[in-house]
Amino acid sequence: MWCWQAMRTFVYVDGFNLYFGALQRTRYRWLNLKRLCELMLAAHNRIERIKYFTAHVTQRPQDPLQPARQQAYLRALKTLPNLDVVLGHFLTHEVKMPLAGTPVGQTLKYLTVLKTEEKGSDVNLATHLVHDGHLDRFDLAVIISNDSDLLEAVKIVKSLGKQVGVLNPHPNPSRVLMREATFMKPIRRGPLGASQFPDQLVDATGAFHKPTRW
């Protein structure tokens, strides 16, 4: 007798890759990740845990409210059951870079600029993915990212007999991830629009609202 069995599913979200790939140019930034995954994955995928990898942004003169918006969104995510936020960090330092448009034959001019780099999210994601796979915590891992640096981690997890799917937030998918993944699906505006949190949410601290502007 055939017996239907749910597939234990863990979801790994590269927060900045998702934001810059699918959310930055839309109004769908108040995103309920659990609902998005439910819409995009098969009914037999039982989502047991979602891990969201990001870093705290810092205040900038042109956008002083950016950290407050991020904190509101992280607070919204924490209302979801079985969701973990895993933090990396930002590094900001001065670097000298050549000025574009210098005519051939002339000495390059350099400007000192502030360079901000997000560190840790891709490494943290890959580490959790491999670690959870070795501990046999899932049958299917779903990565929300288009970062080809995750390729080796995907290969290792597949060598354990696990399946690895990709929900791709970018218009141009990574070819190496596409070749290795069990499946790859683009994240389109329809599921994003259908996966928004309510404007007001309540947690243990009280009620809070979606930011009025992004």
The CATH topology turns out to be: Rossmann fold
Q: Strand-and-helix sequence, N→C?
A: EHHEHEEEHEHEHEHEE
- Could you give a short account of the major beta sheet? 6 strands, parallel
The secondary-structure class comes to alpha/beta
Terminal CA distance: 53 Å
Q: What gyration radius follows from the Cα positions, in whole Å?
A: 20 Å
Q: Which CATH-level-2 architecture?
A: 3-Layer(aba) Sandwich
Shape: globular
Helix content: 25-40%
Q: Uncertain runs with pLDDT below 50, 5 residues or more? A: none
- Determine the number of helices (DSSP H or I, runs of at least 4 residues): 7
Count of individual beta strands: 10
Percentage beta strand = 25-35%
Give the strand line-up of the largest sheet: 3-2-1-6-7-8
Q: How much is the average pLDDT?
A: 90
Topology:
Blueprint: E1 7-14, H1 15-23, H2 33-40, E2 45-54, H3 66-77, E3 83-87, E4 89-98, E5 110-119, H4 121-134, E6 140-144, H5 151-159, E7 163-168, H6 175-180, E8 183-186, H7 189-193, E9 200-203, E10 206-209
Parallel strand pairs: 1-2, 1-6, 2-3, 6-7, 7-8
Antiparallel strand pairs: 4-5, 9-10
Helix pairs in contact: 4-5
